[in-house]
């Protein structure tokens, strides 16, 4: 029997749970825990410069690895600073455990110094939360937190730890709980066989089928199975922004991603489909556009691990509650033993799709000529080539995010790391940090813009302390590009506060931290700059790339329209 | 349509706020809410009446089931059930109205549980419709105050909401 203080239990538990790294920031209520971390060397603590960055870094790591990201913050402002990152993880169903210091139990409710009811504040943006009431509960509560965060539909779990729970003088028995049971929580795994059979029947008869898959395939580790199923059937597939990489994008059957800025062929195929097989996707408003005009001729099969995602915005004809991997594997074995698909109809379907594809081929954007400003799209394509398509790519939010998603072609899951649901500016850079710390051998690229980068640029200091060699590609258009695009389209180009008049000299700023910055202003400078930037995987390089400030992201769905109602350029629409 | 959802909830601090918060967060209605411990000290029973079409009610039950503190729930309106609410009403009882209050209470099988020279306090149980009717009947006489518990309910017959 081992007697440990609450603080030592936390440090010890993290080790026993196999956590290698946590991200955090100390403060009064968390100091016993920090002292316990100081006295061990199994768990590395990454000191960020703002708690929001701790959550994004943990989140980035979780998205890349599939394991829960772990955050440690103090009470009050430490915890409230983490809120945006918790909400980001919640919206994208990312496993995360956030340990928050809290004022001592006897002070709770008295408006004590640095007191916030963080369980209350975060209630709508967590999968669950716990308050520690006695130090002896710590091992079991932490085990439950990790179990909840990582199973079923993953999500963030907050653990509130009053300071007296971690007092060094109070010691209790510590045993690592290998398993926990929560009587009200039994996440489904297998889907209903009858429903799966019905879905496969429909798939084999379908004349114009489309797979529409989301983040559930990526977080569920079901990409390989999905690829197998899609290729056996020969159906086209489109993914959501969160589902990118769930199916190799270079493959002929991939139509790219769908929705507001999705590909022309993906949105056209969805609109004309007679069967949509949705797996691990949630019919988000950025996908469906106007739900009353959504896919008028399609029957819908909807596979999701979360029953509340099914028929939430769009009614499913065949709902299947189950884990993506298990359901897909069952579909594969049914497809194997059954008759073939409707080959003739599928052939016709592919002809339509190919014609949509060729309609837009070579018309997506106009590359710059020597002497002209670079186009943001071609910068992404150049980075794709420079990294052989193998980098981990994180993004912030805005035009650069959409360009990164459109022009970097992902062959693997867990490589495209973006705040899809919450759309959190400031996410990209700290997320890249978290990925790079977990995958030091790989190139990690953060596509960002001046607006987003300035929300989290203090993390340059963290990168300096821990030698984190990410590549930051700033697509500098001197404005909040996506806001400006909307203002161009909807507000007669009245650019209310989307123009940033006093941008810093980014190169000098980066150099102040001792890092390399390369400023690219012309077409000719791009190739040598990328070569220099990617010469050493472990060197932080900031590329400040001036791009055409007037470029818009297209296609863009027309508000309140159907999937196929899109602006295709500044002058064309469907 | 009006639904009565009964929930077995972990008797944990903050559990109730998760349920209530869910309703406001997702823009669902709460008409009445009633919560108390059960014979099992680890569980509370919560009964909520809400209004919505089938799609909304399906979302409500799915989201409630997702809450970790919700152990089990049932939509009582899906089957035969008993529904009761308790109400305490203070009514002006002066002169001729004194008899009228008593007579009306008797008709509704309500009981006068407290008396002053000018006020009767009446206790009545029944379904929500009966209580509404009683309030209507008393209104002309002069209602001073109303306290309702909100609906509690249980399924008829052998059907149980237990672990």
UniProtKB/TrEMBL annotation, chain B:
GO MF, any single term: acetolactate synthase regulator activity
Matching CDD domains: ACT_AHAS (cd04878)
A Gene Ontology BP annotation from the UniProt entry: isoleucine biosynthetic process
ACT domain location: 4-78
Record EC number: 2.2.1.6
Annotated pathway: Amino-acid biosynthesis; L-valine biosynthesis; L-valine from pyruvate: step 1/4; Amino-acid biosynthesis; L-isoleucine biosynthesis; L-isoleucine from 2-oxobutanoate: step 1/4
PROSITE patterns the record matches: ACT
GO CC annotation, single: cytosol
UniProt-listed Pfam families: ACT_AHAS_ss, ALS_ss_C
Keyword field: Amino-acid biosynthesis, Branched-chain amino acid biosynthesis, Transferase
Annotated catalysed reactions: 2 pyruvate + H(+) = (2S)-2-acetolactate + CO2
Entry keyword annotation includes Cell membrane: no
Subunit description: Dimer of large and small chains.
Biological role stated in the UniProt entry: Catalyzes the conversion of 2 pyruvate molecules into acetolactate in the first common step of the biosynthetic pathway of the branched-amino acids such as leucine, isoleucine, and valine.
The family this protein is said to belong to: Belongs to the acetolactate synthase small subunit family.
Name listed for the protein in its UniProt record: Acetolactate synthase small subunit
Source organism: Salinicola socius
Taxonomy of the source species: Bacteria, Pseudomonadati, Pseudomonadota, Gammaproteobacteria, Oceanospirillales
